[in-house]
Give the backbone structure.
Amino acid sequence: KFATAGKRVGKKDLALQAISFGNVYVAQIAMGATAQQSLLAMREAEEYEGPSLLLAYSHCIAHGYDMGDGMKQQKLATASGYWPLIRFNPALRAAGKKPFVLDSPRPSIPFKDYAYNEMRYKILTRTNPEDAEKLLQGAQEQIDRRWQTYEHLQNQEPAKFHPVG
């Protein structure tokens, strides 16, 4: 249903798209990965005087695993770099502080260790193993590039912060 008939292009980075506006508070959270970061982001979003966007990882029965493992799967999504935890607060730049915070540690597991827990990804290994391997490799490369972009954003000085490029 998902992987076999799914799209063959990379996942859009909605967080980065919103950050590019420069005036939107943006956070990517996963309660199962760290409730503390999620609550901090919610508090900051509420306090921010302007538009806010919270992107929350939400496990779903259609992903094809036991819902009792949902919080564990959220941790794996973050540990693989598939769902990095970030916060972007434009008000910090105005105060001379770095506006982008990468709350996740560097990915510690490969994407496949997260993805192949879910039937929506695993099914393709049975129906088309060659295609599954290519898609998995492409996904890992995209995760690695996104991580490099996020590290770059985190290291920019406030006066020179440019969300894109």
